[in-house]
Amino acid sequence: MPKEYSRTQRVADQIQKDLARIIQLEMKDPRLGIVTVSDVRISKDINYADVYFTVLNTDDSEEGYKEAQKLLNQAAGFLRTELARGLKSMRVIPSLRFHYDHTLNRGNHLSALITQAVREDSARQRSSDDSNDQE
Q1: Which tens digit of pLDDT belongs to each residue from 14-29?
Q2: Which of 13, 62, 94, 107 is the Cys-Cys partner for 49 at CB 3.0 to 4.6 Å?
Q3: What is the arithmetic mean of pLDDT over 23-47?
Q4: pTM for this model (two decimals)
């Protein structure tokens, strides 16, 4: 039997869609860059929403991510108000807490490590084949 799709998950999905639209169309801060809302997790009582995001056009420094997180947390009140306009059927709109999602960076790092290991392995294999050919 399929797992039940809970109310909190449905609310989280709707908040993720709405936040992505609001951030893209209504936030006019040029320091923010291109923000992608990757996940929203809501507490069981729907009082808090942890919003995970990535920023596409910042440098890979920690300061760029922290600046975007700071800007989003400062705009949380505005974003919550805009969410309330779209989610009229809800009595409580959760407080928003923004967290940078490091998953994309970790994935790129692991991919680079795998590519490096494959390159080193094939170089080692060629070196081994060349040694066997000389004997």
Answers
A1: 999 999 999 998 888 8
A2: 94
A3: 88
A4: 0.74
Q: Alpha helices, DSSP H only, in the chain? A: 7-26, 62-74, 76-86, 103-134
Q: Give the separation between CA 48 and CA 99, rounded to whole angstroms.
A: 13
Q: Which residues contact 125 (CB under 8 A, 6 or more apart)?
A: none
Query: 102 phi and psi, to 5 degrees?
Result: -85, 5
Tell me which residue has tokens 């992505």.
Answer: 20
- Burial class, 8, CB count within 10 angstroms (exposed 0-12 / middle 13-18 / buried 19+): middle
For 99, the token pair is 């967290």
The CATH superfamily assigned to 7-101 is: K homology (KH) domain (3.30.300.20)
What residues pair up with 54 in beta bridges, in sequence order?
36
Which residue do the tokens 């039940």 mark?
4
Contact 53, 72 (CB under 8 A): yes
Rg (C-alpha) for the chain, rounded Å, is: 22
The tokens for 89 are 């059927």
